[in-house]
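INSTRUCTION: Work out how this chain folds

Fields: amino acid sequence; protein backbone structure tokens

Chain under study, with its fold:
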Amino acid sequence: MRAKKKAVVLSSGGLDSTTALAMVKSEGFEIYSLSFDYGQRHRFELKAAARVAKAFNVQTHLLVSIDLKKIGGSALTDRIDVPKSRRITDMQREIPVTYVPARNTIFLSYALAWAEVISAADIVIGVNAVDYSGYPDCRPEYIEAFERLANLATKATVENRVQIKIRAPLLYFSKAQIIKKGTALGVDYAITHSCYDPSPRGGACGQCDSCILRLKGFHEAGLRDPVRYRKRA
């Protein structure tokens, strides 16, 4: 019997990464999900990532701890207020304070290391360049650049044992398209979490950029978001 191809999937427990995981799973990949406790104020997402890993019966779910609070510089890791009730146009006008310096580069570097160890050629990240908050490390040119770096940076690639592919299957999807795709694949979005500023019990605020974009996506998809909100935008 031919062994399944392996994929390392960055999993935040959010809507996008869960949909990306479901897409790769549907292609027959053996899933190795990777999450990070990096000092984020919305650590509740880690419980969601664990639920997602269980729901999709992944081969291994790895949680790595990195203290990015020591670096700060983001509303998610520092004493900076999370923006609330912003218009979509305002979100896309400038890079917001919820941007975490070099986060995707750090995460993809860990994913690359794990992929080399388990002999996986595919690394999956749920970034999106359509309905997103303007982060520079969610752009297609960033994904292309990191893929080039990945194929220069490891023993496995230099020895031509593997060619790394950074897969961003949602890159050109709108939030509504992402939700429709995930729904078609049987994703239960009730187990996911997207809010940047949840209550101690994990209730979504409904007012941060992430909540607004998520709610917009469900509205445009003609569906109701099943998660709890303290206030719906």
